[in-house]
Amino acid sequence: MPLRPHRRFVARVRAAVGSDAPALRQSFVATLISSGGDLLAGLTLASITHTLEILPGLLVLVPAAIGMRGNVFGALGSRLGTTIHTGEFSLTRRRDTVVGQNVLASVVLTLSISLALAVLAKGMTSLFGINSISIADFVVISIVGGILSSIVVLVLTIVVAALAVRRDFDLDNVAGPLVTAAGDMVTLPALFLATLIVHHDGVTAVVATLATVLAIASLVAAWRARLPVMRRILRESLPILIVAGTIDLLAGQILESRLDDMFSRYEALLVLVPPFLEDTGALGAILSARTATKLHLGIIEPMARPQRAARDDFAIIGLLAVPVFTLVAISADIASVITDKTSPGVLPMVGVALVGGLIATTAAIFIGYYASVATYRLGLDPDNYGVPLITSSMDLVGVIALILGALAMRVI
User: Fold this and answer.
1) What is the band of 139 on the pLDDT scale with cuts at 50, 70, 90?
2) What is the domain partition of the chain in residue ranges?
3) Whole-prediction pTM value?
4) Which of 12, 212, 243, 375 could form a disulfide with 380 if both were Cys (CB 3.0 to 4.6 A apart)?
5) What is the pLDDT of residues 195-235, one digit of tens each?
6) Is there a contact between 17 and 317 (Cβ–Cβ < 8 Å)?
């Protein structure tokens, strides 16, 4: 007698856990650590609402700036994970090594994409009729904030990769959650520090000019350098990162439009935003990184119908989602109560997170797998495309899913 759908899913989960229990444990711990860190980002976001009000349009940039850190350095972690599996990983000061070229590419991408996001953010606010800050303000906040936060995230990514080699754990299972969470935690404070510059018009113009020259000059120099790995990363990453940034800006536009009617009523929902988006992106990034590695190693074929090893990963991601989103909602509610921020209550918060999480996780599995497969079949490196595409897509889908969850629980 054939198993019913829910029993088939339970059987699939049991088989996946039994065959890959270490992966589940590593991913769960990394995701919980990242969720805890993102609560700090959520509290920071809820605490700077005054800055968001006096600098109109800044909230449009926030998801894109946060997402860029996850996109650039999450992809770096994914590529380093592949180099570990293929035996090419080594830490030296030489820039012509595989690791050295990866690091240089990440620095150049940070500068160039920060500039692109500033221009796109100004263009999007103008398109939607928002009376926003100037283009110079956007450039200063995006690039200066990007530099400050990227230093921290870059160091963390390299340290985590080195520990993965030394302690013999799979970087693919932890890089996505930890790196993107670190990006979330440091990006908001870094952006806030950068906003202190824009209150001085003369200084803003000078810093914006210098930052623009630095971003363009670094990209030109890198493009002309005889470092094939770095050039390939730049060639493949720049287009997808610009697309990803545009998607994140759309997510920011939705948040900006909901700032008054949704987040001003219950500040706890604003606290929930960063960890919720982080977890949707992290779950997708774990799947994307594992799929990319299995494609490189020939464990799975790039097929439209996922093979057994890929479906096992789907089950692992689905199993992780329920406790992760439940704990995030409870933690966000507790953090809001402690810091005296308005909340609809713990049960509505859990309901919002679970309903939104179910929608977002389903999308994450679909996008994470097929993005990796499609890029691999096109002869491109899924490590360069999978993480940026999944994290940015999940920022947009996650915002929509969170709003749908809030509507379903009637808290807005």
Assistant:
1) very high
2) 5-408
3) 0.72
4) 375
5) 988 877 788 999 999 999 999 999 999 999 889 989 999 99
6) no
